[in-house]
Amino acid sequence: MSADAAPIPLERFAEAIVELPLANLHAKAAELRNSIAHLVTSNEQLQEYADDGDRDCADAIRENEDVIARMEARITLLRNEVENRGFRWGEEQPATANGEIGDQMNHDRLDATAPPTSEAHLPAQPARTQGGSLEDGELARRLREQMDEEMPDDDEGVHL
Q1: Residue 128: beta bridge partners?
Q2: What is the phi/psi pair of residue 143, to 5°?
Q3: Which of 24-28, 62-66, 105-109 is predicted with the least confidence, judged by mean pLDDT?
Q4: With the C-alpha atoms ordered 107, 112, 117, 123, is the resulting torsion angle positive or negative?
Q5: What is the DSSP letter of 112?
Q6: In b/e form, how buried is each residue of 119-154, taking b as 16+ CB within 10 angstroms?
């Protein structure tokens, strides 16, 4: 963002995300979390110089903290939108061994249990949702079938 451009107001952001597909809401949240992580890293690097009296670095840290707060407010709006659609947010993933936040989002309906994740539990019959789109399990099954049909049984060549 340029120095002259103002961030979109939260009210306009909330209006804009109403029309986004569920996957886009999660993608935007992941993008914001990534940006926050970079800003936090920047602040950590700047802190040493700010502690030594560098006013520019101290100002940059304060500006980054303001930006982080705006981004966190946007993540809250994204969460509210997902939950208002009847889905679980599922962003409360524990930190991994290297300290990163888990990136998996839970798309389960609030009134249902989590679907099984092993291939043995994938539905055998086509499962359709509104608008004729396939459920994840059915899509995975069809893709595997298509790949099996297109892949010869011989081991010649390199398969990427």
Answers
A1: 134
A2: -65, -40
A3: 105-109
A4: negative
A5: S
A6: eeebeeeeeeeeeeeeeebbeebeeeeeeeeeeeee
pTM: 0.56
Triad 128, 114, 36: Cα angle to 5°? 100
Per-residue HEC secondary structure of 33-96 comes to HHHHHHHHHHHHHHHHHHHCCCHHHHHHHHHHHHHHHHHHHHHHHHHHHHHHCCECCCCCCCEC
- pLDDT score for 74: 95
Residue by residue, what is the 3-state secondary structure of 30-44? HHHHHHHHHHHHHHH
Q: How far apart are the first and last CA of the chain?
A: 38
**Cross-strand partners of 87:** 109
Q: What is the pLDDT of residues 57-90, one digit of tens each?
A: 999 999 999 999 999 999 999 999 999 989 988 7
Whether residue 28 contacts residue 76, with contact meaning beta carbons closer than 8 Å, is answered with no
